[in-house]
Amino acid sequence: MVRPGISVLLQERPELVAGQRIGIFTNQTGVLPDLASTVDALISVADVRAIFSPEHGLYGAAAAGAEVAADVHHSGVPIWSLYGAHLAPTPVQLNGLDAIVCDIQDIGCRFYTYAWTLVKLMAAAAQANITVIIADRPNPLGGMIEGPSLDREQRSLVGGHDVPIRHGLTLGELAQLVQRELELRCTLVVVPCAGWRRDLGWTATGLPWVPPSPNIPTPESALVYPGTCLLEGANVSVGRGTAKPFEWLGAPWIDGVALAAALNAHLLSGVLWRPLRFQPCAAPYAGETCGGVQLHVVDAAVFRPVAAGLALVTTMYRLYADQWSWDRAHFDRLIGSAHVRAQIELGRSLAELSASWVQDEAEFAKRCAAVRLYA
User: Fold this and answer.
1) Domains along the chain with CATH numbers
2) Most exposed among 79, 148, 191, 238, judged by the fewest C-beta atoms under 10 Å?
3) Is residue 6 very low, low, confident or very high in pLDDT (cuts 50, 70, 90)?
């Protein structure tokens, strides 16, 4: 079984935290393989003085985009939200700390916010001369790189640095890359997982799956998210408020049978599309019956989620141009540029769109070679 970095830290490198005044950047995914709390485990061996939480809060209960307030842990340690009044720790919140331990499950997608909150934390730690210790965890999407790069003008908390949508790095590796390329002067220590390889699917790790956010309930939802989340840049439900978020996709004006047939005609590797109807209980279309599709990943090793997501966007745009509406700013942030949307509007094919980012993927593979910790 794979051992996450927090297990390695506690069992083999306790000197990193023993007797230190520490903060912890974590959420509900910060658990040991037996599901014991990382926070409680660190409290037993170190002087824990602060807890920092990302989007969705320490317990993963807040909705996407909802501001999270400060709180107090059951141990009495203050919980400082980094998704509310502040997006980075303040000097007062960092006062007196020797180090901050990060133990949080990322999902390997550029527009998932946890990595960029960590980068902001690293920048604040550099200013305060505080060491950042990342207890690494597997990338649920493995080591595959896929998708276009990020234009500088599109940088935000859903993309804080130029990496592909599916970047193929663990959080520890990504932090090392960003530290190097943005010249963040914090002291960074990464404690790698033991026994993880990039070709391991989540089930093969033997680790429990703790949903990293409310609408990523399973490893399957994480696998499709880098593609299907792109539909949040249009007037389409991505299945929030259903049993299969990011797997059930549609709108009241979609004919699921026609859409599934058109998507299956793409013959994308590793995925089949099934027509369905569903009623989301979250916007858009809360309480309305939507026609649409469910994507079924039949071979994760060859499945390309970003290509699948662009197939959805281009096919829906072609079939339902009269009903389709962009949230242009958000779609551009997610895909990484205004160029891709412009090409879709010009009728470019999925093959043409995918070909446009092959060079981006190759250049990124070269950039991250020096920070890879796993085979």
Assistant:
1) 5-206+365-371 (3.40.50.12170), 219-337 (3.90.1150.140)
2) 79
3) very high
